[in-house]
Amino acid sequence: MSNLPDFDFEDIRPYTDKEVKSKIALMLKDPVFDEVLAHVFKFRPVVEMVKLQLRMIRNTKQLQGTFVYDLLRTVINKSSSGLSCSGIENLDKKKPYLFISNHRDIVLDAALLNFLIFEKGMNTTLVAIGNNLMLYNWIEHAVKLNRSFIIKRNLPPRELMEASMKVSHFIRKSIVEDRLSVWIAQREGRTKDGNDKTQVSVLKMLNMSNNKGISEGYRELNIVPVSISYEIEPCGLAKIKELIKKEHYGQKKTSKDDLKSMSMGMFNPKG
Question: Coil, strand, or helix at residue 22?
Fold first, then answer.
């Protein structure tokens, strides 16, 4: 019997397998998504072939094991000289984990971890992503199809507390009851100055759903720290510009900056 209270996760949860076909269909009808495909794959016949491949997908496992895996392998091969990891051999394939990662890239930090654990025969993780990145409908469809759940930001204090409580229970339920691994960044927003420091509020949020002792509550989440680094930061120059604008001119980044960073992170050289 579950000791966790009931929450309605409808507004933050990933899509289920039953929704995959219809949500892909919606995404493929989006003219903005069509422009993205044209930008990535260049030639129209290739774009149409990719769209046909997506139409044939029926569940998340099939999507991640074919289309997403092939896309990430292409990104790795074309933008880097290789990808390496250590420590993954110590993970139990049958055990769910909470991967808490440093945050250098919007898309690739979680994507590369999932690429690696998929190759090791493990199930991919649920991925925490901020609602500030849901810039277009196709992005929301794409991330929820890839097992992402939504972190709501920039809310009034009371609503933020309620949203944090809901996310905390979603994460704990996913790991403890559903036996699903979860990825979350150690802080809100990417590290831009190289100082990978865990945000205390992230740890407090995780503990909000704990009805046991502090140590036991964290222990049942099976926390695994993850450190990712890029020999060449694909968004390094853009990060420096953001820091200068913020420090000297008080300017904040825009949604266009986030979208550009997603693209640069995927396709710029990484060493």
Answer: helix
